[in-house]
Amino acid sequence: xxxxxxxxxxxxxxxxxxxxxxxxxxxxxxxxxxxxxxxxxxxxxxxxxxxxxxxxxxxxxxxxxxxxxxxxxxxxxxxxxxxxxxxx
Length: 88
What we know:
Elements: H1 3-23, H2 44-58, H3 75-86
């Protein structure tokens, strides 16, 4: 397991909790494989809310310009993006 993979695994729970707060869902229903748009109902407005929530949760700023659609496919893909962004 690479350092980024380990960091992503550690972040997955925090991402799920942030998603649960934004989407008003039970965090237990959110898994690493949950698809953000298809399974959880994320939309363009809630993406912005999620980014603000994650910045607060992670005590840092996210570079919105570096985010791509692929980063928002699943909870795991978003966690991997956050882990790789933290190492930059």
